[in-house]
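Following the same procedure, sequence and fold were stored together, as reproduced here:

>
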Amino acid sequence: MDLSSPIICLLLHSLVFVSLFYCNNSLETRNPLVNQTFQSEDELLKLKETIAIRLKKLNKPAVKTIQSPDGDIIDCVLTHQQPAFDHPLLKGQKPMDPPEMPKGNNRINNFSESIQLWSLSGESCPNGTIPIRRITEQDLLRANSDSRFGKKLPVGSNDRQYALQFVEDGEFYGAQATMNVWNPQGESKSVFSLAQMWVHPNFYGDRRTRFFIYWTADAYQHGCYNLKCPGFVQTNKAIALGAAISPVSTYNGNQFEISLFVWKDVKTGNWWLRYGDKDLGYWPSSLFTNLKNAAARVHWGGEIFNEQYEQASSTQMGSGHFPEEGYKKASYFNHIYVIDSKRVWVQPPKLKNYADSPNCYNVKGGVDSSWGTYFYYGGPGKNKNCP
């Protein structure tokens, strides 16, 4: 992977995609291997052997295994044996302790917070381990190619729509936001809907809302989700990247949120990720070049991917309702902050709105004493004004 021009989009359009979620893919796939009629039993056997060898390499030895109610298998892997340390720049290293977060108004709301399905029953990984969602044969088949598994493929400029706010032309050393969690509906099995501090999935095989991250070092030409390839160093045993989230918000009902933070440690140059009050881990500074300094741009908002971009999609973004409907009805981000050049959390200056199809999906924001900087976003997609 070319590390010369990093982009992480995780709140920072130069850092990592910490993204939330909303995946609308099914177990079906266009992978020719799935529906192929094999000429002989030997060919089928060879394929199975190839997949078995690949899975053995991808899945690290587990100290403990946990069966999630949604069918996922969570492996508790020793922290020093996690995939990150297979990276040639990280070999021989051990996870670092979390640094102190920069000072500022980075408080977490008192709303009900969503947690992950695999831990609902009280299950947890032992100290000294991290939870990793096990990769399965179906995961590899959905990737269309073994070599592309866990990596984001290049996409066209017309196959996605956005409703977001952003700040640019600055010097940012971190970003944060709280967002309510929904489970949008998609019109087909080949679309997905995201809320992100920035991301996107194509390999989970179900319609559950999930939390995952993505990072790239070459302007999105190549990149990697979660721990599918070496890079992100996880330090927390409570959150499994890529695992399903529960509960989710309901229209005019209970709202459930998560808070995400990304910031640069001035001592090491590493970019840290926090989920609520839990430090999840970091992207080592050695992975990047430009991000050894600051990020110049930060995005928050929603994204829809639609392969049939010639016509509007009826896939929901967020709750599936427009920003004008407001609290308990529309999706939102609030308590939006960035870390400025003085290394303190501040409300971002000159936030800009962007919606490429406002009659399909839109964004509307403001500032108040309770939520600080906030915005509502989303929409139903195809409607009488969005044909």
Remarks:
- DSSP finds three helices and 22 strands in the chain.
- The helical segments are 32-35, 41-58, 137-142.
